[in-house]
Amino acid sequence: MTTLTEDIRPARIGCDLCPSKPTAAVAANRAGTVPVNPEVILANMHGSFTGVSATIANLSEHHARRFDTAIFGQELPTRVRRFGWWSLARLLWSRPAGRRVRIWHARRNPEMWLGLFLKYLLRSPVKLVFTTAAQRRHSRIPRALISAMDAILATTPEAASFVPRCDAIVPHGVDTDVFVPPDDKRRAWQATGLPGRFGIGTFGRVRPEKGTDLFVEAMCRVLPKYPEFTAVIAGRWKGSEQPFQESLARRIAAAGLSERVIWLGEIPACERHLWFQRISLCVAAPRYEGYGLTPLEAMACGAAAVATRTGIFPTLIEDGQTGYVVEVGDVETLAERIERCIQDPQTLLEMGRRSRRHVVANYDIRGEAAGIERVYARIFDGEL
To answer: pLDDT digit string (tens) for 105-136?
Structure first.
């Protein structure tokens, strides 16, 4: 098994996901003395950097251009202010300047719980917003939490069908100013020091739900025929998932591909866009996905995509033009579509260029930010 270690990983970079922007939040963050009294609080209480975390980070600076915005909870790669429990306690009964209420935007169950605690037990003047991406029926407790929200957003019509009401459907987007193609995919891959001339990547937690085993099996079938290609698996695994990861490593070794299927581990948030720039094909084979940001981000960076029929993938990917969609769990077709993509590298690169154009035209984060901010404005105007 090969794991990418510091001796072959390119030097870590600073957080350039957050170029300097003239926002009130950025200025306050730099000043360090401006009190936190935001109009909008984006809750981020998950300890790991997940797709939801990426969404919050990407949206925060856009929101900060229109509203005084701050993030509660874990650090994110953004210059928008973050605050913790002590500052939250100081905000309990205050109101933002010129506003009757403050917005608490939750995207996870614990964040809804805390919002409800603030509003109904502590009588804090907050309005609760929740965004759902889940494309399946919520269990009893989450249903009750969602029903208590003041505004509910869904990322797709399918997700909207599983909540009691939906105030707006706002698809996720990607920051196309950050997630950009490299000047040359071959040179970008060469900079990794890994074998081959082209990269194939899968991104996300290493576990069955994410289909890591399907990706590994497809690579074991396809890579021996295409020596110009090397695969990377980017994502962490917990102790309980160690046996699963070890079984995949044994399968890779048995296929003689330990030097061509590379375990990257968890990629720091500020390096995500670099790996999307380096690969020419992104594969996402989850058995279930609420939305699925990684193919979207990879496509913005000029990669083609092959994904299973779940989440946003059937809508995102133009079959035969920007990639392919296969049925969930169908490893035979998954391998065949991957091979169809990589058998002609020039065609693959052209698919990547079409992917970039498609994402810029339809999934730019500015559209997502504007859709959410319309809901915020309705709340501040007393409509919700």
So the answer is: 999 999 999 999 999 999 999 999 999 998 88
153, β-bridge pairs: 131, 168
The rounded distance, in Å, linking the Cα atoms of 227 and 208 is 27
Structural domain boundaries enclosing 123: 22-173+365-380
Residues near 121 by beta carbon (within 8 Å), at least 6 away in sequence? none
State which H helix or E strand residue 349 sits in: helix 345-362
- Listed in sequence order, the residues at least 6 apart from 90 whose beta carbon sits closer than 8 Å to its beta carbon are 36
Are 237 and 169 members of one domain?
no
Give the global pTM: 0.83
Domain membership of residue 13 (yes or no) is no
Q: Which domain CATH number covers 38?
A: 3.40.50.2000
- Select from 218, 215, 348, 358 the least CA-distant residue to 280: 348
Distance separating alpha carbons of residues 6 and 264, to the nearest angstrom? 10
* φ/ψ (deg, to 5) at 272: -60, -50
- Residue 313 phi, psi dihedral angles, 5° rounding: -55, -45
357 and 370 part of one domain: no
Say if CB 292 and CB 311 are below 8 A apart: yes
Q: Do residue 147 and residue 213 come from a single domain?
A: no
* Domain identity same for 190 and 155: no
pLDDT in tens, 328-353: 999 999 999 999 999 999 999 999 99
137 shares a domain with 90: yes
Number of domains in the chain: 2
The rounded Cα 203 to chain-centroid distance in angstroms is 10
Kindly report, residue by residue over 20-38, the tens digit of the pLDDT.
344 444 444 443 434 589 9
> Could you tell me the pLDDT band of residue 8, with boundaries at 50, 70 and 90?
very low
User: Longest C-alpha distance within the chain, in Å?
Assistant: 66
Whole-angstrom distance, CA of residue 380 vs CA of residue 384: 8
**Number of Cβ within a 10 Å radius of residue 304:** 30
pLDDT given for residue 6 in this prediction: 33
Instruction: Band the pLDDT of 49: cuts 50, 70, 90.
Output: confident
Closest CA to 229 of 335, 354, 356: 335
For the chain, the 3-state helix, strand and coil shares in percent, each to the nearest 5, are: 40, 15, 40
